[in-house]
Hints:
Layout: E1 3-15, E2 23-33, E3 35-47, E4 55-67, E5 70-83, E6 86-93, E7 106-114, E8 117-125
Antiparallel strand pairs: 1-2, 1-8, 2-3, 3-4, 4-5, 5-6, 6-7, 7-8
Amino acid sequence: xxxxxxxxxxxxxxxxxxxxxxxxxxxxxxxxxxxxxxxxxxxxxxxxxxxxxxxxxxxxxxxxxxxxxxxxxxxxxxxxxxxxxxxxxxxxxxxxxxxxxxxxxxxxxxxxxxxxxxxxxxxxxxxxx
Length: 129
């Protein structure tokens, strides 16, 4: 059975050393709502040198907290591309990365940014304890 969780989050991104073609940032998030907790991660990004608004990024973050009351941690893998301003983003739970009460977690997260606020929708499955 697929479950749905939603809520908001705050994110801090800190640039790390980079060359002219590839940038790296750290990710630090605080989640509220059905997912309560924090995450830390790393992001790599690059953009086209010849076409405006074309870029890509990959990231991995470790989320630690409680998902609808079940405690544990898991990893999310991001894959984002923007082609001339049109974006595609896939955020997936890394298989078998769930710990404690989140063992067996599978799912995909969607990030929504509206009026400067970040929120998430998370569709997931989780084995019963």
